[in-house]
Model the fold of this input.
Amino acid sequence: MLSGKNILIGITGGIAAYKICELIRMYKRNNANVRVICTPNALNFVTKLTLQNLSQNNVGIEEYEINDFKPEHISYADEADIMIIAPASANTISKIANGICDNLLTSTVCAFKKPIIIAPAMNCNMWENPIVQENIKKLSTLGYKILEPESGFLACGYEGNGRLCQIDKIFDETSAILLPRNEVKKKYIITAGGTIEDIDPVRYISNYSSGKMGTAIADEAFYNGNDVVLITTKDIKRPYKIIKVKSAQEMQQAIENEFENANVIIMAAAVADYRVKTKSEQKIKKTNEDTITLELIKNPDILQELCKKRTHQTIVGFCAESENLIENAKEKIQKKGCDYLIANDISRKDIGFSSDYNEVTILHKNGGIKQLEKASKQEIAKAILKEINE
Done:
């Protein structure tokens, strides 16, 4: 998603510095070029070698390590599309707010004319200090994006506001800034994950769906500039609308609430075909009998019902098959009435459930068939969206 983007990360002296290693990995997994500047104190918490290996770039620490005619802090500022300072200490925040340039990081900030995200992390008493708060307010007024710390148990032993915000939040904010959405193209409803059908308070019927494929499609649709609603059984955070559901009936209701003004519905979720007819309100106890019988009833066929009621929507279904993939998929697309059907072969261990890779066949209602060879689910998501939007 971030191919061709140049991201500059500034790390200051704080225990949360180690968390930035995972942030670098997230940027790199999305094909961004990452460079890192550390204050000298940051190296008390994370090593230069670690950061260089993760970013695959030299790490800047000292000023005036000039290899050519351009001062290093100017070079960093010119090359990057965005700068993230995380964790940002009270010391560095105060320096930036007052224009102090006494190290490579603060000098680079002073020369930086593009977006800057600041994610503070410090002791709760330091965060609540009125001088720090005044500096935060000043930076926010000047256009810096402040991702405030979260509350929790701190490394110093205190409990309160001061924990570095979630790494996902920094990544999402970076993506939202670097991939501006000037005009909403379409509204997508996408489902993901396996539904859960309760048997009693401790047991349920479900399946192995990880939700990765549906989430990858939602990510791709959003970063293409669309309005996205992801209806999922998984706990995830994204910069678009997430509706968390559990059962097939809850998923159906959530879709119906969003359906009328949607343009595209992609049913990537693995919806349970059956549910227990009568859920026990108490835990079912083990008896002396060797067997137990559960009476199951059919869940609503959400895909088929949506196809019957659509007015203008493009509807895409998914099917998971362990044998006779194409034959079963052809029968299903005719029965359901959807515009496209994405067929998955779940008999293979290297793709599908829980894997980061997939290989699918796209069936069109007019009889067309397109095979997508094994690739990352992000690449498969791109190809699916391209196919249904041509």
